[in-house]
Amino acid sequence: MQRVFKLERERHQLRANKITKEVVYGITSLTAEAASAEQLLQWTRAHWGIENGLHYRRDKTLEEDNTRMEVGKLAEAMALLNNFIIGLILRLGFTNLASAQRTFDAGINRALFTLA
Q1: How confident is the model at residue 112 (pLDDT cuts 50, 70, 90)?
Q2: What is the spatial distance between Cα 27 and Cα 5, in angstroms, rounded to a whole number?
Q3: How confident is the model at residue 95 (pLDDT cuts 50, 70, 90)?
Q4: Who's near 38: CB < 8 A, 6+ residues apart?
Q5: Nearest-5° angle of CA 80, CA 52, CA 74?
Q6: What does the pLDDT average to over 28-41?
Q7: How many other CB atoms are there within 10 angstroms of residue 40's CB atom?
Q8: Is 47:26 a contact under the CB 8 Å cutoff?
Q9: Which DSSP string do the residues of 29-94 spell out, in sequence order?
Q10: What's the rounded Cα separation, in Å, for the pair 109 and 116?
């Protein structure tokens, strides 16, 4: 271990009109010469960008966490399909998965035409 760093976060929840603050600590084996404080912050943000961009979509919008599958291969197949859906939606130019879901739910013919 080379360094410990402190990160203070402030999150604005628009729907709840609420602001939450938290302090987290990190440990890195990188020296100050190998990674500046700004670089550590960028890496931390990149990590949460992945978390928010993929896992949140899978967990909340596609309700993956609510699916209780007993068979391991079935769960893997569902995760693969969810990743495919997210990739397809992004490829079609949507930036919001829930919005795309509503669009295609409302027009199955459009969804089928898009895939054809």
Answers
A1: low
A2: 6
A3: confident
A4: none
A5: 20
A6: 91
A7: 17
A8: no
A9: S--TTTS-HHHHHHHHHHHHHHIIIIIHIIIIIS-GGG---SSHHHHHHHHHHHHHHHHHHHHTT-
A10: 11
Q: Which two tokens stand for residue 4?
A: 């410990």
Q: How far, in Å, are 23, 61, 76, 77, 97 from residue 107 at the CA level?
A: 45, 18, 28, 26, 15
Domain range list for the chain: 52-115
Number of other CB atoms surrounding residue 82 within 10 Å: 20
For residue 100, count CB atoms less than 10 angstroms from its CB and return exposed for 0-12, middle for 13-18, buried for 19 or more.
buried
Which pLDDT score is estimated for 13? 86
Report the residue count for the chain: 116
Residues 44-80 have pLDDT tens digits of 888 887 777 777 788 878 888 777 776 678 888 888 8
CB 60 within 8 A of CB 43: no
Phi/psi of residue 3, nearest 5 degrees: -145, 155
Residue 78 β-bridge partners: none
Per-residue pLDDT, 38: 92
